[in-house]
Amino acid sequence: MKIEKMFTEDKAMKLQKVFETEKLLNEIRDTDVLLERILTEARLIANADAGSIYVIEEKQQSTQTTRFVNYENEEFNNKLLRIKYAQNDTQKKKMLPDAKTPYVYFTVPITKTSISGYCACTGELLNIADAYNIPEDSPYKFNSSTDISTGYTTKSVLTLPLKTNNNQILGVLQIINAMDENGNAIPFSNDSIDYIQQFASSATQALEHTYLTSNMIKRMQRMAEFRDPKETAAHVERVSDFSLEIYDQYAKNKKIDAAEKMKFRDTLKIAAKCHDLGKVGISDTILKKVTPRFDDNERSIMCSHTCIGAQLFTEPESEIDEMCRDVALRHHEWWDGSDKGYPGNLDFKKYEIGTPLEKATPLKGEEIPLSARIVAIADVFDALSHRRVYKEAWSIDDAFMGIQNFAGKQFDPELVLAFLQVRDRIISINSAYERMENLQN
Ligand SMILES: [Fe+2]
Ligand SMILES: [Fe+2]
Description:
Layout (H helix, E strand, L loop, with lengths): L2 H6 L2 H15 L5 H16 L1 E11 L10 E2 L8 E10 H5 L13 E3 L5 H8 L3 E3 L16 H6 L6 E7 L4 E12 L5 E2 L3 H38 L5 H21 L4 H14 L12 H4 L8 H8 L1 H7 L7 H12 L39 H16 L10 H9 L8 H9 L1 H18 L1
Antiparallel strand pairs: 1-3, 1-7, 2-7, 3-4, 5-6, 6-7, 7-8
Helix pairs in contact: 2-3, 2-7, 3-7, 8-9, 8-14, 8-16, 8-17, 9-13, 12-13, 13-14, 14-15
The structure holds fe (ii) ion (2 copies).
């Protein structure tokens, strides 16, 4: 819905829109996808030019399960606010049409000295009419560094906690510069604040639901990480982020309709994280072996992680289960159907692999599920561009070339094209994770 149009709507219609949006949020299953959507919708409701959304995380933890902070009695020493998404319409207008805003990564200590920190500490809503005229005796100050680096001018700032009914803080929502009909930044009106408070409370409930799924997946990831330290949480998260970028571009190229795109990307974000969960079923002698190279039998055992992973999702009960199974089973298939791909071209029964596994039907081309074809690219690119115990990291250019050279062989050429089109986003995700790892070490 156009922002200008929302101006002309009366209160009842606006409330109706808020309720409709809340319903929509409840259909989203992935936490990140939901956070991005909450920010977009909150800005639309309050006609805000910009905004950010933060979650609370523990410091120095490789796989962060999301923390709920009780603001009344919790110490914040071991926690921080991590920005998940930032949006800015004014900045976006300066970019190419349809370009995404840059991938951002920074954290804020949970202290009363910053606006978002104050909100997380106290659970209070802050409505600031002019960020550059905050009274001297306020505990919090406005940090103008982003304005200075971008040339943007922040004026009104509405910051509110994403607070559950039990006073647990999940994160902080901040919207910036309410706009009038002429495009001037004005303070947030009392009506806007009412709508946003109502919206934030439902958004928080939707968020709590997605945390159940995402924390369960994170625990499974951590289990896989205990077994195979090569399969780090950061690798899994990057593969999931890359997959989403590839799919978004592919959906744009193929003009996939908005509803289908929304549903697929939400599920893909979760399923991509499950690609190698089957490694939990591989013995240490194989999993931890670095040199010499695997013999045929050992290689086959290693390849069986695809079938073992799929077994975690047999008798699927949801679309997420189905896609997780597809991704786990098929992320090593080759587009050209060659015997380098597996498990379709491997007969496990020839090898001693302990658990008997069904032979998977050989697949090629579009027979391989789209989700698995996407994750295949994201997984290989991440392995190439990062150091592993058995190899040094390839340069970014070489890693992109490595994928490009296998278009039409190992990888779906249309997806490789989409991958190359989002090169800048992929690089910015890589650097964001690097910064995060440096901060944690
Ligand atoms: Fe794998
Ligand atoms: Fe992987």
